[in-house]
Amino acid sequence: MWTIPDKGEGDSNIQSVLFQEYLDVLAEGINGKNCVLSGLAITGGADMTPAVAKGAVLSNGIMYAVAAADVTIGTADGTNPRIDLVVVNSSGALAVRAGTAAANPKPPARSSNDVVIGAVYVPASDTSIGASQITDLRVMREMGPTLIFAETTQKTQANTASAVSVFTSAPVIPNGLFLAGRVLRVRMGGNVLHNSTTAMTITLIISYGGTTIFQDVSASYGTTADADRTAWYLEFDLIAAANATQRMVGKWFNGPATITAPTTGIGDISVDEVLGIAGITSATGGISVDSDTANRTLDVTFTMSAASASHEWTKDYATVELL
Predict the structure, then answer these.
(1) What CATH number should be reported for the domain holding residue 247?
(2) Is the dihedral of CA 124, 137, 172, 151 positive or negative?
(3) How far is 84 from 77, CA to CA, in rounded Å?
(4) pLDDT value at position 272?
(5) Burial class (CB in 10 A: 0-12, 13-18, 19+), 278
(6) Could you give the 3-state DSSP secondary structure of residue 3?
(7) 302-322: b or e for each residue (b if 16 or more CB lie within 10 Å)?
(8) Per-residue model confidence (pLDDT) at position 271
């Protein structure tokens, strides 16, 4: 992870200079704006194409999975050295920002929201990048909580009896990130409208990597029409008991079938009944999905039992934190 070699440790003492650009990388990584979540170590070799391991980053707070790949360092200058930066750009792709050759070179400017993973010292007439030429500039966010996903744009769904994701775009958890001992903390909430005399239930399904972790049907919203909306809230932790074994523990709440509208907002704190509030969990042994071999989608779906324009749910927000 982020380190500056002492004099005599690299190929040149230029590598031990603490440039302002390196401090900027450190500051952005510490605050979680542009940082590395896992992997992405750079390995030198026999040519100008060092290898980058798979990993994950936050660029401007948005999570990207990065596949293992080689990057290409441009042809060395014939007279002077230079410093190149290896980055994951704001689109989640590996890239090289080439420096300018000079007797005393400095790192190049980064593009907006580049996640810098390393600096490469390129001597004059160089033809291969060795390990001693690479400065590791990964600022790792290994201790949580780290917000890796957030949706605050409302999503509304009505008039369907199909399973529909509460997410606008369900979060994809990069492989190699959610490994043994880590926890994903998920929070979301919104409201439900049941303004018809047709009974309705909502089936909740939580899935990871296409495998269902939890599924259950709510109590019925009854046969009384009510134009007032009721609140729902879901929170759960997905726990990596092992790389390929996940368990889940959480809580589900949804408001009563009919309410007296509050003075302001949605819900009714004057009633002590609710349609459903309960702890929820996975099977004792958890589920078997390997988080180290492929990216995995984390999803939550609602299925209304009866399609009606007067049956509607709204998701107000959803967040996922890595602990």
Answers:
(1) 2.60.120
(2) negative
(3) 12
(4) 61
(5) exposed
(6) coil
(7) bbbbbebebbbbbbbebbbbb
(8) 66
Q: How many CB atoms lie within 10 A of CB 170?
A: 16
Whether 19 maps to a domain, the answer reads yes
pLDDT digits over 3-38, tens only? 898 988 888 899 899 999 999 999 999 888 899 999
pLDDT in tens, 56-96: 999 999 999 999 999 999 999 999 999 999 999 999 999 99
Return the beta strands (E) in 102-225 as ranges: 115-122, 134-136, 146-151, 155-158, 163-165, 172-173, 183-194, 202-208, 211-217
| 5 within a domain of the structure (yes/no) | no
Q: What DSSP designation does 86 have?
A: E
The percent of residues above 70 in pLDDT, for the chain, comes to 98
Same domain, 155 and 294: yes
Q: Which domain holds residue 63?
A: 13-136
Q: What's the average model confidence in pLDDT over 167-194? A: 95
Please check whether residues 162 and 247 belong to one and the same domain: yes
Q: Domains in the chain: how many in total?
A: 2
Residues 161 and 95 in one domain: no
Closest CA to 161 of 23, 309, 288: 309
Query: Looking at the structure, do residues 190 and 305 belong to the same domain, yes or no?
Result: yes
Q: Is 6 within the bounds of a domain?
A: no
